[in-house]
Design brief:
191 residues, DNA-binding, mainly alpha, homodimer, Tetracycline Repressor, domain 2
Chain lengths: 191, 191
DNA sequence: ATTAAAAGTAACAGAAGTGTTACTTTTGGG
DNA sequence: CCCAAAAGTAACACTTCTGTTACTTTTAAT
């Protein structure tokens, strides 16, 4: 009964992601997105009332996808295996932190849908910390993680590590193994 | 011969910094800045042709200030002392990385002044790496830094460390000493 | 007191984003 | 075949930011 859509939800979210990373929250506009999708700006308003609603919808989609992968950390029994899994997961989702930061800039207006989305996002954020907290706790139980360091610092540290710009084009294998080495035992020699 | 200015260069740059951190590059406008300074928008155009020129001017000012402090790293002889100095310097300039990232978003238009400023900024950036490279080299010479880890990763790591959000309000002293501990010897126990 | 330089303002026109409305196009079930 | 639902468009009114111009205000040197 209906006409065929010119773009899929997936294409829309991919374009949204690309624009957000490139232009930032304030620089993101419906015009740019519409151009990317070869569609008129008005068409987008058929699906989203405004920028906030679109972006929070996208964030939920992205966060859902990430959490499904993160959840699998529990399928690894030892701390060491979970560590490896977490690191490679984060390294293949480098954009997530940037997007989370952009998400913080979203102002909740009067729009009800946006408020709901923000609440759902907070819930997912807590879910994320839940999985990671278990990971940290396991590490301390197995006495692999230093007991006197605050949990939140461990997590922050691991997340930040992957955001280091590889500006001089070090080969990925050297880069990743170096990062793991530093996270495990630091950059100082044992003297 | 001239009327007294309603704002000093310092006030202007402070307001610019605050707005940039709060609103980001795209969200920054002359209107917001003028309001902050209790001055008309037009007045700002007496000093800067456009947003790019103002922001690059500000970046130069900020970078200059930072480099003067960084330069003093050379007054410390041992690697260990330089490490302590660098860490506390970076920890008291947490905004610098955010600002550097915002700086990357600046599009060079046709404006000649902006082109010059971007060149000067690149030069200062190289100067910064020069000082830090000496620091790394010293660390490797003193055999305090692991020799098989790429230099650029050491630097990226130290800079990223201070960007970790202290979301759960760990006390500054515990926070700082924990960060230093992790940078030095990692988060794993020695087993 | 005059005056010229520097500082500041108010207002205009143009560009770009937003949200809405009235319209056209496509499509498959009856 | 037709027609209603969903998709899409073009255009309008509104807002905000930009850069400029013509103007007023302050100030200190003469």
């Amino acid at each position: 009964m209906a006409r065929e859509r010119k773009f899929s939800t997936d294409e829309l979210f991919q374009a949204t992601k690309q624009l957000l990373l490139l232009q930032g929250y304030e620089g993101f506009t419906f015009s740019l997105l519409a151009d990317d999708l070869n569609v008129s700006r008005g068409a987008l308003y058929k699906y989203f009332d405004n920028k906030e609603e679109l972006i929070t919808d996208y964030m939920l989609y992205e966060m859902d996808r990430f959490l499904i992968e993160l959840k699998q950390i529990e399928s690894h029994r030892s701390f060491e295996a979970q560590f490896d899994y977490l690191l490679s997961l984060i390294l293949s989702n480098t954009d997530i932190q940037k997007l989370i930061n952009i998400g913080k800039q979203i102002q909740v207006g009067s729009n009800q849908k946006v408020k709901e989305n923000k609440h759902k996002l907070e819930k997912l954020h807590i879910d994320m910390y839940h999985y990671l907290q278990n990971f940290i706790t396991l590490g301390k139980e197995e006495q692999r993680l230093k007991s006197h360091i605050p949990d939140s610092l461990f997590l922050g540290y691991i997340f930040q590590s992957v955001a280091i710009p590889n500006h001089f084009g070090i080969s990925p294998s050297v880069w990743v193994s170096s990062i793991k080495e530093i996270i495990r035992h630091g950059m100082f020699t044992n003297t």
